[in-house]
Structure formats: C-alpha cells, structure tokens
Amino acid sequence: AHHPSVWSRLARQLRPPHFSATKAFPVYSVLGGNMSVNRNRVLEVGGFNEKLIFGESEEVALSEALRDRFGEQSVVVDPLVVLVHRFDPSLFKTWQRSFIYGRGAAQRWRKNGGWPSLPVVGPLAIVGTAVVAPFSWPLGLSIGMLTLATPWVSWISLPSTNRHATTLAYPLIAFVDDLAGALGFFRGLSRKADNWWRVRQR
Fold first, then answer.
1. For the chain, what percentages of helix, strand and coil (3-state, to nearest 5) are there?
2. Which of 1, 5, 68, 161 could in theory staple to 115 by disulfide, Cβ–Cβ 3.0 to 4.6 A?
3. Are 177 and 94 a contacting pair, CB within 8 Å?
4. Coil, helix or strand at residue 98
C-alpha cells in the first residue's frame, strides 16, 4: 500500500493487490520479522524509534524515514528471498495480535493525526446493520452480511485461491479480526493504555 489509512485498507480488501512473483517491487513498509537493511542508511535516518510501544509500527516509521531520505525504491520486497518465521498460527493469537496492532495504531494516530489506520469491513458491517435494522431488520442484516462477503467475493475469485473450508469461513474470521483491531484501537485511545504497557515492559 502507499499509505496505511482506512481508505487504503478498504481498497486492498475490496480489490486484492497483484504482485510480481519473480521481481523485486517497492512497498510502503516491510515487516520487522522478515527484513534486512543497509546498516549505514538505517543509522543515517536515526534507526528504530525505541520510544514506540509494541504494535505502533516501528517498521513503518523506519520505512517512511528511508523512503523520504533515499526515495521510493529504497524499501522493496523481493519474492525470491524466503525466510522461515516461526509463530503461533492459532486464530486466537492472530486476533490477539490484531488487538495489539490496533492499540499501536491508536497511539500513532494520537501522535501524528491524519486518517487513523482502522480495520474497515467489520465496523462497516456493524454500522450498516445498526443504521438500517430499526427500519427493517431483514434488510439491515442483509446489508451487514453483504458487507462482510464483499472481500470474500474478491479473494475467492483469485485463480490461486484454494476453495476449501477455511476460505469459505474467511468473512467470519476477517470480521472477528477487524473487531479485534477496532477494539485495540479504542483501547489505545486511552492514555492509560500507554502507561499500562510501559509499566508492563519494565
């Protein structure tokens, strides 16, 4: 993505991106668990910001600094470089991470302003249902379900998508993931959340 805003997230969910499988391409940011850097360049832009809490996208801050200083082509993904990254793939851990990243996004938004980096589809489904349901609950429920199904229709149409049970369950899994991120975001809006995390880190 070119920006972590709510609009970029919506565009990515409604229209999945297509990337080269053989050539390196520039990106907005990379993940800390799978990145290598030119040490001198990273030091030149100040390195990682150690004042950021976990989930506040320290990789995004570093990537932004590198792109601003050295140009758009300075942060790239090379699909031919493969790294094994061990983590717990359970749904609970996935949703827990989404909560933490949502909280970090709120901290970042409190500091920088602009458009918040919020999950999109889940909250839209709830708002759409809540607005229409008082007038017609079947219509409200249908709008909510159709909103949830929109990303699913996009992803299921990809030629590389496997059509099995986990794919069919995608709307529900993504819905809970969005809610976890949104709850984390609203938790992160509280300054108490920031203080709680810093005390816990000590």
1. 60, 0, 40
2. 5
3. yes
4. helix
In which residue are the tokens 């590389």 written? Answer: 160
Does the global pTM surpass 0.85?
A: no
- The vertex-27 CA angle with 23 and 31, nearest 5°, equals 105
60 Cβ contact list (under 8 Å, min separation 6): 4, 28, 29
Q: Per DSSP, what are the bridge partners of residue 25?
A: 77
* Amino acid symbol at 75: V
Residue 33 tokens, joined: 């668990």
Residue type, 159: P
Query: Which tens digits make up the pLDDT trace of 6-58?
Result: 667 667 666 666 778 889 988 888 888 788 899 999 999 999 888 887 777 78
Q: Which two tokens stand for residue 34?
A: 């799978």
DSSP run (H or E) holding 26: strand 25-26
Nearest to 23 by CA among 66, 85, 81, 84: 81
Contacts of 81 (CB under 8 A, 6+ apart): none
Determine the Cα–Cα distance for residues 86 and 71; give it in Å rounded to an integer. 32
Q: Can you tell me the distance from the alpha carbon of 166 to that of 125, in angstroms, rounded to the nearest whole number?
A: 21
Which two tokens mark 81? 């470089």
